[in-house]
Amino acid sequence: MSQTQNPTSGVSQVEVARKKILEVDKMLNSIIIGHEDMIKALLIAVVAREHMVVIGPPGTAKSYTIHTLAKLLNAKFYNYLLTRFTSYDELFGSVDVVSLTKGEFRRNWSRLISSEFVFLDEIFKANSAILNALLSLLQERIVYDAISGQPIQSNLWSCVGASNEPPEDPELSALYDRFSVRVFIDYLNDDAILLRAIEQKWTNNNSLSAIASMNDVKVLHDYAVAILRSKIKDLGDVLKVFHVNMIPLIKSMRSKGVLVSDRTLIEKLPKLYGAYLAVYGVTMDNVMNAGYDLVMWLARNRSELNDIKKVIDDSLGEIAELSRKLEKAKESIRAMDLKNAKNMLNDVLSYDVNRLTKTPWLKPRAEAIISTAREYLNKIISMEETLKKLGGEL
Fold first, then answer.
1. Residue 83 pLDDT
2. Residue 336's pLDDT is what?
3. What is the chain's Cα-based Rg?
4. Which residues of the chain have pLDDT under 50?
5. What pLDDT is recorded for position 391?
6. Under 8 Å CB-to-CB from 44, ≥6 apart: which residues?
7. Which residues 6+ apart lie within 8 Å of 102 measured at CB?
8. Which pLDDT does position 225 carry in this prediction?
9. SS3 state at 104
10. Pairing assessment for the beta strands 158-163 and 181-184 based on DSSP bridges
């Protein structure tokens, strides 16, 4: 797959963009503690040029996260708290009275039209007029003026909605489906994570400056689309790999009552799949594992989220426990509990893939998990050596 070259360095624009976006990822996780899953989902949604909704109680850094991302990308940002009394004019901009007295209809459009990132708090409390306008904004990036009917092209790249609870009104189902990524969060509860969050807030300089740009996002977005149209060595067409990995999961989810629309399956999920590979690399691990992350973002409520986890466990069989150990090891590394992380990673590495003779389709997944565990173990060893050297110097 060809990647546009930077003539001054010989390094592809994709590689430069990916490095910068991963720096944004690292910075976000250093500022917003304990919400790694939300940050990961947000970055994938942004690179895919999709929208995300975050469901969780107030005071869980929902608006702060998207605002911080906009600053790190030097992007235009707009946020608004919606209520059932919010009028069209309040959200989109008021009519120009001076022009109206001259017989001309003009609207002073709000920054919602010109902003690349939009955060709409309590999005499901909006009235029907706002909801209708949001449908076209999210799908087509166009707003139809409530009075003139004139279509106005917006500059929207990604919208993040937020709500304390998922919507129950059937009238909101179309809007909810526009958000291809849905994340459920709660208050921080782990003592070690809470300590890190407190220390970050009160001991670090939180002044922010851009470390990437929307151009980097667009380069990765274009690359993600190119990935979907390419082939992977030894695996074949990416879309066929996507089909083989995702369709059985989606069918199992649908059989349990988890609604996954054809629009999501045909249009949204492939874009997220390509974005995942664009950000984290087209490796065997990511090609095999991406789907298991992506389907977690399709749940409409927490009950469906549990159903999806059960589908994943059923599809993975004994590999599910291997995957859980790897995720727990990653959590221990983030908490700097390196001893516990090493123990769990060694457990993963001791797994014999030859046990999967009766379920050979699980072997690539197991090998990918083991390969990732080996990478993390090597990182821990490197960290320990660095800490040992620093200790000796002191």
1. 93
2. 79
3. 23
4. 1-10, 394
5. 66
6. 181, 272, 275, 276, 279, 294
7. none
8. 95
9. coil
10. unpaired
Measured distance CA(331)–CA(238) in Å, rounded: 30
DSSP states along 46-73: HHHT--EEEE--SSSSHHHHHHHHHHHT
CB 216, CB 20: distance < 8 Å: yes
Task: State residue 7's pLDDT score.
Answer: 34
Strand order in the sheet with 77-81: 77-81, 117-121, 158-163, 52-55, 181-184
158 backbone dihedrals φ, ψ, rounded to 5° = -140, 140
Beta carbons within 8 Å of 64's beta carbon, 6+ residues apart: 32
How far, rounded to the nearest angstrom, does the alpha carbon of residue 223 sit from its chain's CA centroid? 17
Residues in Cβ contact with 59 at an 8 Å cutoff, skipping those fewer than 6 apart: 187
Q: Looking at residue 360, what is its pLDDT?
A: 72
| H-only helix segments in 256-362 | 262-263, 269-280, 284-294, 302-316, 319-334, 338-349
Whole-structure pTM value: 0.83
Q: How far apart are CA 162 and CA 181, in angstroms?
A: 12
Q: Which two tokens stand for residue 127?
A: 């009235």
Residue 95, SS3?
Answer: strand
How crowded is residue 158: how many other Cβ atoms within 10 Å of its Cβ? 24
Tokens 């003779």 found at: 357
